[in-house]
């Protein structure tokens, strides 16, 4: 059985008005068109809903019984049409996003908040996990968009890659703040907050110090840079962190920040990626959010110098 919306709409209008001609006027159709639509409906269901008396349609008991169901189906189809329109306009839908700790504290919640500002019907799941877990979630299609450290190439993940330059964070008023660029020699034997030794930035830092003949004194070993920057603000150490954490810290604390940032040489970078499942098409909503995320990341990376080094001197 294949009932059409127009058949149901015509049937309900004939029942409501009690007249083929009135139903035609309401629907903007001719009387023959209304009669043909009713006949087609009856052929589809296999039994008559009306008696034909003197060119009039007289409802049978089955018509009255079917009336409530037909009204419900029309209402449901109208609701479905509205939902489809909202989905197409990005006003309705669900979005599952995963990110690593560096992005979860400030940056990604702000992007999500801006993106959903005029989309009250959008539901968002924003989960923070380590970068390897984020990659696994994307590869297994559990999440729509991921933002974390760049994973090893794999056929199940599509990536857009970004290189975040590392900067040196020091306590406000530190003598090193007078320098325009910080080198390993400047940090020779000074107390440092460093991530766990396997982390890519930690590996690069150790090599930079070794190449410069400088001593790396690790006072604090941490999982993320958020507590490291707090220790720096308390005057306990220095740290070399990626610019995503640095910019997030600067935006959160503003003029209240007790941390000064300077460029670090040699250049160290943390590669991060926007990840999406490679083996399924992205929804319109995920595509739109991914484009917005790409735009915000590009703006952040290109504006690191102006945002971090021109404010606190």
Automatic annotation (TrEMBL):
HTH lysR-type domain ranges (all copies): 1-60
Superkingdom: Bacteria
Listed Pfam families: HTH_1 (PF00126), LysR_substrate (PF03466)
GO terms classed as biological process: positive regulation of gene expression
GO molecular function per UniProt: DNA-binding transcription factor activity; sequence-specific DNA binding
Keywords: DNA-binding, Transcription, Transcription regulation
Provenance organism: Roseibium marinum
UniProt-listed InterPro entries: LysR_HTH_N (IPR000847), LysR_subst-bd (IPR005119), WH-like_DNA-bd_sf (IPR036388), WH_DNA-bd_sf (IPR036390)
Protein name (database record): DNA-binding transcriptional LysR family regulator
Organism ancestry: Bacteria, Pseudomonadati, Pseudomonadota, Alphaproteobacteria, Hyphomicrobiales
PANTHER family per UniProt: TRANSCRIPTIONAL ACTIVATOR PROTEIN LYSR
